[in-house]
Design brief:
about 150 residues; mainly alpha; 6 helices; elongated; membrane
Length: about 150
């Protein structure tokens, strides 16, 4: 029976050989936790946008169809991130896909807020900026988790 931490993340393997080719080796606990937190937050935001798009339309000034589309995308993306986090040794390309997607989401959100695209309300603009900063935080934590895993091999 393997041990796990308080978040249910199985105890990491500290050898690169057990990770297999293309997988992140070393202590992947922080990386997998960062991915899981990202999946939960993304799924929650996606579900809220999808389920509450009619109410959020008037509050945020964002079109219902846009919110529903973004919500559906985020729910599917959250499932992908959860899947990536479920491996004891996540695939390096999958982790970099998540990090790159998060950085692209941050950049697009920042441009959207700065340019006033979609004509959001003040609250809508604040929400765009808030979630962009949160997504950037997840990308940063995931990169830190990758570095920590690599350093644990030395």
């Amino acid at each position: 029976m393997s041990s796990s931490d308080s978040f249910g993340v199985p105890a990491p393997s500290l050898t690169a050989t057990s990770a297999g080719p293309g997988a992140v080796g070393g202590d992947t606990g922080l990386l997998r936790l960062a991915l899981r937190l990202d999946a939960v937050a993304t799924g929650a935001v996606g579900a809220a946008a999808l389920i509450g798009c009619a109410l959020l339309d008037s509050l945020l000034g964002l079109p219902v169809a846009f919110l529903a589309g973004i919500g559906a995308f985020l729910v599917v993306y959250a499932l992908f991130v959860a899947w990536v986090s479920s491996a004891r040794a996540p695939r390096r390309t999958a982790v970099w896909t998540v990090v790159g997607s998060n950085l692209a989401w941050f950049a697009l959100s920042a441009v959207t807020a700065a340019a006033g695209w979609l004509d959001p309300t003040g609250l809508g603009t604040a929400m765009i900026v808030f979630q962009a900063v949160a997504v950037l935080g997840f990308a940063d934590l995931q990169l830190y988790g990758l570095r920590k895993a690599r350093k644990s091999l030395s």
